[in-house]
Write the C-alpha cells for this entry.
Amino acid sequence: MNKTEHPIQSTKTLLIASFGALVLAIVILVLAVLPAEYGIDPTGIGKKLGLTALAPVEDKIETASLAVCESGEEQNDTVEITVPAKSGLEYKFHMQKDAVFVFDWRTDGKALFFDFHGEPQGDTTGYFKSYEETTKSNSAGTQIIPFTGSHGWYWKNESSSSITLVLNTKGEYQVLGRR
C-alpha cells in the first residue's frame, strides 16, 4: 500500500501556518476593519484608502432616550444626527400598532432626500410602508403607527459636505438608533 504525502506533515508546520493566519488576521483587522467599522485608524492607511469614510458617525444621544418606554408613559427625545456627504443613513424606533408618534426634524436649511417608513416586525419579504418620501430641509407631523415594527427615516445627503439635523420625537417607543 502506497502512502500519500500530506501538505501538513508535522506539528511544527501546523503551528507555523496557524501563526501566519493569526498575523494576517491582525493585519487585516488593523488596516481595514477598524478604520471601516469604527473609524480607528492607527496606521493612517484606512484614511488613504477611503475606509474611514465608511465608519458610522456617532450620534449625540442622551442616555435616557435609549430606554424602552415600558411604563406606558410618553417620552420626549431630541437627537442630533449627522448625515455624511454623498451618503445615507437610517434612524429607527420600535413601536407598537396604534401608537401615536409625534416628530419634528430640521437641518440648518440644506435639503436631504428622505423616506419616512415602517417595516413590520418579523416580516422577511422586504415589505415596508412609506409615509412620506421627498426632498426637504425639515418635516413634522403625527403618525398613528399601522403595525408593530421598526419605523423611522432613511436620509440621503447628495451634497459634498455633511448635513446635521435635529430630530425631536414624542410618543411610546424604543429607540433603535442608527442602522
Summary: The chain has two domains: 11-53, 58-178. The helical segments are 11-38, 45-48.
